[in-house]
Amino acid sequence: MVHHSDAPLTGGPGRWWRAPLRPARFDSALRSARLTSLLGVALGAAFAVCFVTGLISHLIQHPPGWFPWPSRPAGLYRFTQGLHVATGLATVPLLGAKLWSVFPRLFTWPPIRSVVHAAERAGVAVLVAAALFQVVSGVLNVSRWYAPMPFFFTAAHYWMAWLLLGAVLLHIAVQLPVISSALARRAVPRESGGLSRRGLLGAVGGPAGLITVTTVGQTVRPLAGLALFAPRNPRIGPQGLPVNATAAGAGVGSVITDPRYRLVVTGTRRAVSLGLTDLALMRQHTARLPIACVEGWSADGQWSGVRLRDLVALVGDDPDRATVLVESVQTAGRYRSTTVPPGHTRDELTLIALRLGGEPLHPDHGYPARLIAPNRPGVLQTKWVGRITVLGPR
């Protein structure tokens, strides 16, 4: 995706095989190897941040045995996922400018000149396709518009990220001499239509910064007033907090309002069945913790309820070593249950919450009881909890 000269791409006698199909339409004096390299460095850095933070999110939700995710600091996931989404949105103008800078090269003729050239162009095709897929599907996800995606977003986004990483590394390996030479070369001032190359970089960086400022307020509360284009306002929702899954959508309305509701806690030695009155009579604790969603938004809430470690101890198990399965009364759903590792089980901030902001939980926030734990994605903060099972030390 980097051409080999700082001169603009043009046709001309003796160079017809390197010229774009319609040079008059595609040519611009602003295009150069240096400009493409600078845009590539910025885009590569953004993709690297997105890959690392996205990988963290995936490992938290699907933890392998070797991956320990701590319970503190309580807002670490809020930061990493907010950075993931903010950086991903900022790549939109960067990717557009990068593709524009190499657009004529995509239409050279003949399209394949050798086996090596064919392999190189195939790698570029994979790179472009994977980059566009990640950016477009990511924007659709944070907007919660899944109709155009006939696949499970999380799995597709994860595996495509690895494909994109491989394509980027291969592209860098192939183009590194060109990139190094272009960046070391002194910039040649050029203008097209009154716009200089420096002005073009500003025209790309400006929108990237503007997108960040006008969306990051969905997780950085001091900037909430500037979040004009954020998909989610973290101040709007039941009891002042947004929700993704509602009680009506989960089909739990009749179960959670049944006066015979019981929270069943099963240990390795014994089990107990607790009604709301029983839970209210246990020692109550309050913690201020964020709901941090994978779509990038987050919001703080003041939660009150019973510590998970106290419930584990109630059935005779050691909360410092216990792995716990928390299940919703939902009968279906990809996230109807979650496993809480020992580090979170023992943490005093991990609650089976009964109240939010001093009031009983709204049904959409998980009434009659929900899990709220520090430093976990919102999809793992199980709502409408009906059963807790101690799996034993892990």
Automatic annotation (TrEMBL):
This protein's record includes keyword tRNA-binding: no
Domain Oxidoreductase molybdopterin-binding: 258-391
Membrane-spanning ranges: 35-61, 81-103, 124-147, 159-184
Keywords attached to this entry: Membrane, Transmembrane, Transmembrane helix
Domain of life of the organism encoding this protein: Bacteria
Keyword ATP-binding appears in the UniProt entry: no
Record Pfam families: Oxidored_molyb
InterPro entries, sorted: Mopterin_OxRdtase_euk, OxRdtase_Mopterin-bd_dom, OxRdtase_Mopterin-bd_sf
PANTHER family associated with the record: BLL0505 PROTEIN, PROTEIN-METHIONINE-SULFOXIDE REDUCTASE
The protein's name in its UniProt record: Molybdopterin-dependent oxidoreductase
Species of origin: Actinoplanes subglobosus
Lineage: Bacteria, Bacillati, Actinomycetota, Actinomycetes, Micromonosporales
